[in-house]
Amino acid sequence: MIIDHDVIILGAGLAGLRAAVEISRKSDGKVNVGLVSKVQLNRAHSVCAEGGPAAVLREEEGDSYDLHAWDTVKGSDFLADQDVVYRFVETSPMELLLLDHWGLPWSRRDDGRILQRPFGGHSYPRATMAADKTGFFEMQALYDHLIRYQNFTRYDEVFATSIIAEGGRFCGLTIIDMATGEFQVLRGKALLIASGGLGNLYGFTTYSQTVTGDGQAMAYRAGLPLEDTEFLQFHPTGLVPSGILMTEGCRGEGGYLRNKNGDRFMEKYAASKMEVAPRDIVSRAETMELIEGRGFTGPKGLDYVHLDLTHLGADKILHRLPLIREVTMKFLGLDPIKEMIPIRPVAHYSMGGIEADIDGKTKMDNVWVAGEVACTSMHGANRLGANSTAECLVWGGITGAEILKYLGTNPKMPDVPEDRAKAEEKRIFHDLMESEGNENPYQLKEELRQVMDFHMGVFRDGQEMSAGLDKVRELKKRFKNVKIEDKGRIYNSNLVNALELENLLLLSEAMIVSALAREESRGAHARRDFTTRDDDKWLKHTLVRFTDDGPKLDYKDVTITKWKPVERKY
Ligand SMILES: Cc1cc2nc3c(=O)[nH]c(=O)nc-3n(C[C@H](O)[C@H](O)[C@H](O)COP(=O)(O)OP(=O)(O)OC[C@H]3O[C@@H](n4cnc5c(N)ncnc54)[C@H](O)[C@@H]3O)c2cc1C
Question: Residues 183, 315: one domain?
Fold first, then answer.
């Protein structure tokens, strides 16, 4: 069955919702939107965001666009495109004020103004917060605003499997309605991919189980290049052993990092910024402390250092970090008012994604991308905390407006080649589901995550990555023999998990190939065998394309408008 909408939005997280709002309000509810999510709408991973979005709201008190842009460019280890960064810093304040008008209950200062707190790598307190549950409130405010319009259809618990494109244009998205198992095609004049990150490649991660890079993998298979996938961010404070995020707001509020001797070790690594240095630097510092024996022995090999909030006092923890306390109490029976929290670096964010221009437009005429799935080259080699949810809002708004402009040119509803949809249905419901193989997808996923944890961690080297690539390729081969035990159609999560795993395998191969080729250390890509940044050879973005013979690499220039790369010191 084919269902038509003017616009298909794949993903109902912050980026997808913001785009849906923009299309709805600017068209006064006239454009028909299909909003697709593999989970219930308010379970998109964005609800987990804790610390909040970054924006310049206090020019009169000393912050400035230049300062935010400089922090972001320096944080990116000079790989961010500077025109994109400027557009971001100039647009994010308005986005936050819009959310204020749409009812987001920001935390406030005593004078009634919106409260902002320090975050890693920012030289001014600009993480804008609703306590430590900011993502939840952002999602709520956006959805509350969206429902004023009646122009959208929600496709919740609907799993997208592929993008059908013809002649360089999108024509349809193939989906499985999980409640019925029905295979359908959503057809649209335009597609926005806003399907989030890919962090389930890793075992120790802050991401929800649903974040499996489906959008990146579908786009990659459909011929769109992925950019800078080798840059995967490790957040310095993942709770041991679950990996749950202890927001950077903990350190923004004044929390310390201590090794087993009780020392605030950041003094050795970033004396001027200490615990609020950028994430790549703090994660490396923690890893060095662990390697050199100044950490604690943790369960399952998860050695750790301490996040110390005990000096902040009960009042601050209860009002500014209530979720952190709730989580440590529930998961570890530990009260951070009195005890230190065991933490270590944890896979957290993908700087790379589907290549896009400054408007979020991809190489396909009628396809845009926004949010974590996208790479507009705004974060370069290392994202600053709080710049991601703000990016989702900014490019949700921009892509929504761009799509409307495109619809104003009266494009035709594309034809969906029947054989392509049939081939996809056969691939899933015959080739995969009826396979006589004996490989367990959950076992394969567990092995993949171990490979990525071990071979593509905070520090890497050529030998380790090559060995990791061999293992991933072996897992890809074994996937051909995967067995789907559940032969039913209704809520077949066994089938969906296998499709997600196939996506993760494809992306991990692309990521390792990109990382192996980049023979330097920059931002989150820290090599033991090439320990310094090499601007002569590597001041460029990696592009990786899908071919039947494996990932193919290409490169493109970094846009530098204002700041030439200099040594990055904090
Ligand atoms: C624990 C945690 C806390 C964070 N805190 C902050 C913070 O405080 N500040 C900050 O700036 N950043 C933060 N980040 C990063 C930020 O939250 C994310 O980058 C951002 O929310 C991603 O939003 P998104 O809209 O791109 O994707 P998501 O919110 O992940 O939404 C993706 C959507 O795509 C849908 N989807 C995906 N695949 C499919 C498919 N195959 N079929 C159908 N639907 C699909 C999903 O169902 C979902 O609706 C945090 C990240 C983590 C992990």
Answer: no
